[in-house]
Amino acid sequence: MNIPMPICWSVVGLLAAFSLILLAGKGSWLIAGYNTSTREKKQKYNEKRLCRVVGGGIGILAIIIGVAAFYHFELPSSISWIIPWGILGTIVVVEVLASTICKKKSSSTHQQ
Which residues span the domain enclosing 26? Predict the structure, then answer.
């Protein structure tokens, strides 16, 4: 690939830094969609859990891109699937977790 390696490693470093911030439960402003939501919509989510789920996903993406950059984006055939399927799978898992375990339980179900 014709991307200079310092740029690739800079992206990996940036993703790793964002991941660490989010894994610490901080940096909800980094989560697109959540940071622009209304206060009412934000109250439906456990912010710390959401940050950790998204941070874990970004960490996995940083690892995937780091492995690809290590091989100069010419991965061996045994792991060549990691770029498309690893990234897609990570995004799907983060989306599912964000919309399930990160939502607060509604108080109306506890009143029955």
Answer: 5-100
